[in-house]
Design brief:
Layout: E1 4-11, E2 15-20, E3 27-32, E4 37-40, E5 48-51, E6 54-55, E7 73-77, H1 81-87, H2 91-97, E8 108-111, E9 123-126, E10 129-136, H3 141-147, H4 152-159, E11 164-170, E12 172-174, E13 179-183, H5 191-201
Parallel strand pairs: 7-8
Antiparallel strand pairs: 1-4, 1-8, 1-13, 2-3, 5-6, 5-12, 7-11, 9-10, 9-13, 10-11
């Protein structure tokens, strides 16, 4: 297997999302930082400090879904982008979502790892930084809103292409383009297995 790579570091600021209110024809505004932009790429590997709360400059609004020690970073495989190009409801959604990494709210875009071979508890050593895989991402109504597709969360659930959250064990500087060295943990449950388990409980 080729080396796993960190292909982009993405951060975002708080902004308003327009979401369905539950009443036909009505919408409401919700503040979220789900929209991320790449600030470090292999072509422009800007060093970014990664602390226990996450990447420097990244805003986290709703700490119940993203943030805190166990959800400091959200990692997503860039190999899944092709699926979303095909799956999203409108051409406008596809163009707005995939002009750059960060479209799904990810802080870390990766290559060479996916939900079936990433295990809860695994450590990632990236340069001087150590991260730990903690749990799968669960899609919500904000994901539908940012994609412009009311079925986006359902499509993530059905496909299993959820990505995963990570805790920062050893803070330090990250650069896009760095190799990810995986140090196996107990290897009891993959992200894919944990995601299916979470869905059964909801």
């Amino acid at each position: 297997m080729s080396a796993a790579l960190l292909t982009a570091l993405c951060t975002g600021s708080a902004s308003d999302l327009l979401v369905a209110s539950g009443e036909p024809g009505k919408i409401r505004r919700v503040t979220s930082a789900i929209r991320k932009e790449p600030i470090s790429t292999p072509e422009n590997p800007v060093p970014i400090f990664c602390g226990v709360p996450g990447l420097e400059g990244d805003k986290q609004v709703d700490l119940t879904v993203h943030g805190g020690q166990d959800k400091a970073l959200y990692a997503y495989p860039e190999e899944h982008y092709d699926f979303w190009h095909r799956a999203l409801e409108t051409e406008e959604s596809k163009l707005s979502m995939f002009s750059s990494p960060g479209a799904l709210g990810e802080n870390l875009a990766t290559r060479g790892l996916n939900e079936t071979d990433v295990y809860l508890g695994d450590l990632w050593e990236i340069g001087e930084v150590t991260l730990q895989v903690t749990q799968p991402r669960e899609p919500c109504f904000k994901f539908n809103a940012v994609t412009g597709d009311k079925y986006a969360s359902k499509k993530m659930a059905e496909s299993g292409l959820c990505g995963w959250y990570m805790a920062v064990i050893t803070p330090g500087i990250l650069n896009a383009g760095e190799t990810i060295r995986v140090v196996p943990g107990s290897r009891q449950q993959t992200v894919a297995q944990a995601f299916k388990q979470k869905l059964r409980r909801t």
